[in-house]
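call fold(seq) -> tokens
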Amino acid sequence: MIPTARDFLLVARTRGREQLQDILQIGQLTERVAGLAHMLQRERGASNIWLCSAGGLFGGERQACAQDVDRETALFRQAIARPDYLPGSALFVSLACALHYLELLPSLREKISARQITPPEAMEQFNCALRHLLSIVPETSNAVDNAGVARSLAALFSFMQGKEFAGQERALGALGFTQGSFSDALRQQLVDRIDSQQRCFDAFCSMVDGPLREHYQTSGEPCRETERLRRLACTRPGVAGAPPDLALRWFTLLTARIDALRKVEEKLIELVITQAQQALGQLLQEAPLSETEVGNWVAGHASNDGERYLDRHLLPLVRQQAQQLETMARQLASLQATLEERKVIEKAKALLIRHQGYSEEQAWQALRKMAMNQNKRMVEVAGAMLTVADIWHLPIKE
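ret:
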């Protein structure tokens, strides 16, 4: 029997239903990946503070985090116990790599407990486990043909990467504040993570609807105190005050923010699953096709080919454009310009403090307002202010 167009369209419908059913399971796997990553990020930060404080801080927290990670790992293993629904060999490679680093966790914890490993070395091992764990999410895109689900998965992957950069920012800041100083390399790494997460969150905001975007903007953006500590860490080699107090304050602030990001992440995963359920329900309700409907469907499909192609390949494009974490760590030289910009802003802020009697926060807000009013970047306004100051030698305000 020679197959007809109608035969292939019926097969396409059947495959579409199967894919959507697989996506429902993939959504549940993604939730397990996100939950495990969240707890791993917490253990990484707590371990960093414990090591930097020579075992004086976060001993109990570190053990509690390890227990949470073990619980989430068990749930993750249950989710992949029967992986028949997973698409593509690359996904299985990602799973194998993630499991490998999870299996190394007991050995890593022993080294941390015995303080036989440096904080940067411990952080890098946690980073490897998280990198391979998060790589599972984009590999699931091979199972996605539905445009709405593909876009939501792309937004989710961008958001999870941004959240991981925020987790690394927490760990790096904890390292510097606990030590009481930030080396040039550490400051540059911190600037790297701040800028990288913002790019990821910007990509996420461009792909989601208003309510999700507003939820992130109201609960997931860094607070003023976090911004103040960021500026302190990124622009000054030494940090004033008792280092343990600053480290704990930093860790508490960043943890609260990352927990808020987790709430947004959960809503994103719910969105993926809901969209898959709705699409599956529509497919199941479709009536048998007549020859006329076959022609109409083909014509409509052809007119939307460009849009379908872009939506279908959106997630791989996001994955390719998002720089891998290990690559980002090696690009410290290219971040020098960003660090210099921050130094210019700090000098302009110091000028306002000295000559206008502003507080640090007032100086920051004044620069920000001038930049907004002139529709310029803050560093441009700061640079212009420093140029004028050099020419006219502004008197100090009494």
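The chain has 18 helices and no strands.
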